[in-house]
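Milestone 3.1: sequence recovery, worked example.
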């Protein structure tokens, strides 16, 4: 018996034992024949006389899962859009409130005091002793450390400070 004859005999045996219905009208690969049609009188075949079999109802939970997933995606998009607008407004108000003598940090990490401010540029004094000044665009300011407009603050120990920051090498003691 050749391989083709063997496969055809297996297909014939499967066709005899297979239940009738929508699945029986499928063509099996390698069967060498066509699916049963209305001419053969197989029940459930397209165009065959007899009652049509109802389709299986879809799982209602799947629709709910899709709707929840879609709602979650829409929620994340809305949050990202409005969150970025909120941050942009906060940054614009911070840049608009910059004044002389404010202590700021640039995007590059440079800490300095504003010596001069223009519409689009800021001049920072980065070294008090050598009077070193560096010019930056206003948008390069990342944060304001200390506002120069405020009155002298009180340190936790109760001693008033003048707003200046003293930088000392590690291991040295401050003389008061």
């Amino acid at each position: 018996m050749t391989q083709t004859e063997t496969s055809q005999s297996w297909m014939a045996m499967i066709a005899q034992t297979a239940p009738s219905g929508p699945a029986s009208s499928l063509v099996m690969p390698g069967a060498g024949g066509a699916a049963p049609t209305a001419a053969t009188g197989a029940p459930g075949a397209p165009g065959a006389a007899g009652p049509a079999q109802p389709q299986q109802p879809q799982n209602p939970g799947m629709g709910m899962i899709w709707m929840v997933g879609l709602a979650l995606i829409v929620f994340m998009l809305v949050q990202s859009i409005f969150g970025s607008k909120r941050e942009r407004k906060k940054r614009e108000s911070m840049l608009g409130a910059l004044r002389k003598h404010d202590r700021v940090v640039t995007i590059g990490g440079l800490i300095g005091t504003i010596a001069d401010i223009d519409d689009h540029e800021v001049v920072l004094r980065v070294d008090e002793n050598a009077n070193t000044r560096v010019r930056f665009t206003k948008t390069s300011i990342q944060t304001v450390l200390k506002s120069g407009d405020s009155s002298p603050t009180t340190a936790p120990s109760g001693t008033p400070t003048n707003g200046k920051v003293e930088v000392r090498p590690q291991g040295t003691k401050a003389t008061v």
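The chain is about 30% helix and 15% strand. The longest strand covers residues 111-117.
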